[in-house]
UniProtKB/TrEMBL annotation, chains A, B:
Protein name: NUDIX hydrolase
GO MF annotations in UniProt: hydrolase activity
InterPro entries to which the protein is assigned, alphabetical: NUDIX_hydrolase-like_dom_sf, WH-like_DNA-bd_sf, WH_DNA-bd_sf, WHD_NrtR
Pfam families reported in the protein's UniProt record: WHD_NrtR (PF21906)
Keywords: Hydrolase
Top-level taxonomic group: Bacteria
Positions of the NrtR DNA-binding winged helix domain: 168-228
Protein's organism: Flavobacterium zubiriense
Annotated signal sequence range: none
Length: 245, 245
DNA sequence: CCAAAAGTGTTAAGTCTACACCCATGA
DNA sequence: TCATGGGTGTAGACTTAACACTTTTGG
């Protein structure tokens, strides 16, 4: 029995990648391109998030995993289901309608949106059949459907969560420097952070563990590498009820 | 053109009410009862959350509003869409199957879950046709479908959010005492809070405003009433980036 | 020896924790 | 005048913010 597509339920993934070199928080997008035969200029030519319709025998998380596997080749990425976009008119601008006719989907679809965190360099986008491209979250191209809204809401959620959950680490390699951490926070929050205070604060944390290793291949003083211990973190933060409204 | 039900998409609402008298965080549930003609004992007799299927011309939020209007008579309650429950086998235990046959819904349904915050005493449950009942969140009755799971996840989300967002106030009347606030936090978090430190901390906040009013009708020293100013809160917290992981 | 980024210290202000008694009121 | 819960103060530990220079390294 082959699994059937559920036509009105989809999953869209906002893949955030932190680029350590440019210190930029990026979003992975694929092109949406359509040229009708009677026209010179393309009828649709913009970017969208990758998404799939859910199959009738899979969970929502599994749908998200399929999207991720296809686009990144990876399993087990950090992913957060953050909101449903279900406005009846969400796919109703001109290009979306042209596209929907061409792709033969028509009825109202609600989409369950996830965001995903990873360091950009763990995936090789060149070899992917969908030709995905990274765009800085603050310089997005023209976007199809309601995907600009989805990305903006994902980003807002990320900005909030990053302040009180240890999710920055998902944007970095397993071994990172304190500067990397700071760069990631600065890129996400769009603020400058005092380097001395930041180091002091973070190095004191028990779950940020100095390794017996330094950076290699840099033409300057190589910096100390650290790792994040989820286990230690969870032990410490089992119950800490600091009300900080 | 009459709006049609979307058969595979529903909205379920976890209505949390804080009862100031018993100092208990409660959940509003309705009974699910079914007696088949050939049997003495009811085939189904448990409690569930109230939910509706989404109509094809309404947003998800509007579906949630319909649920709330019906169950509480109120609009404009604080509501948070927190998670989608879409496991293909989520309605597959014995009673759920009997119930589904009886109610003529069968196919896989995904439900978009909200939680709602209000003070229990703003609604009169006795007059409602569905005979809803409050249950302390820590003493839930037997629950149908996957609603125990939904409630538990709603509660977990609430516990987390209450620490860094000003949502406790949604559980209290517009005018409240500092003790009320403390009781609400204690009920939600299941901890005891030092009264002196709590008062000091909260009274200092600019957005917690002392009124020219005291409690009336209490047979002891009447306490000072306060209100929460959302405006002041938002002005203060426009951008405060304290990383507290 | 130079360029580049890593790494470091101090002070003052503010916040958190722990702890126990007096006070104002209505009955 | 009493019972009840409202309301208060302090000291020590800790955390934060603001601020600029020295050190280490590879090339």
């Amino acid at each position: 029995m082959k699994a059937e597509i559920i036509p009105n339920i989809s999953v869209d993934c906002v893949i955030f990648g932190f680029d350590n070199t440019t210190k930029s928080l990026n979003v992975l997008l694929i092109e949406r391109y359509l040229k009708l035969k009677d026209s010179e200029i393309p009828a649709v030519n913009d970017y969208v998030l990758r998404g799939f319709h859910t199959l009738d025998n899979e969970t929502i998380d599994e749908t998200a995993n399929r999207v991720l596997k296809e686009l990144t080749g990876l399993d087990h990425l950090y992913k957060k289901q953050f909101k449903v976009f279900g406005d009846p008119n969400r796919l109703m601008n001109e290009k979306d309608i042209i596209w929907a006719q061409h792709e033969h989907f028509n009825q109202r679809t609600i989409t369950i949106a996830y965001y995903i965190l990873l360091p950009t360099d763990v995936i090789q986008i060149e070899v992917n059949q969908y030709k995905p491209k990274w765009f800085p979250v603050n310089q997005l191209p023209e976007l199809g459907f309601d995907h600009r809204k989805i990305i903006n809401e994902a980003y807002a959620d990320l900005k909030e969560k990053v302040l009180y959950k240890p999710i920055v680490f998902e944007l970095l390699a397993d071994k990172f420097t304190i500067k990397d951490l700071q760069d990631a926070y600065e890129a996400i929050l769009g603020v400058e952070i005092d380097n001395r205070n930041f180091r002091r604060k973070l190095i004191t944390k028990k779950y940020i563990i100095a390794l017996d290793e330094k950076q290699v291949g840099v033409s300057k003083k190589p910096s100390q590498l650290y790792m994040f211990s989820k286990d230690v973190y969870q032990k410490i933060y089992k119950e800490s009820y600091l009300i900080s409204i």
